[in-house]
Amino acid sequence: MSRVLVVEDEPAIRRFLRLALAGDGAEVAEAGSVAFGLAEAAARPPDLVVLDLGLPDADGAEFIRACRAWSDLPILVLSARSQEADKVAALEAGADDYLAKPFGVAELLARVHALLRRRQPRDGSCEPLIRFGAVALDLARRSVSRAGAAVRLTPTEYHLLVYLATHPDRVLTQRQVLQAVWGPGHGEDSHYLRIYVGRLRHKLEADPARPRHLLTETGVGYRFVP
Question: pTM (2 decimals)?
Answer without folding.
Answer: 0.66
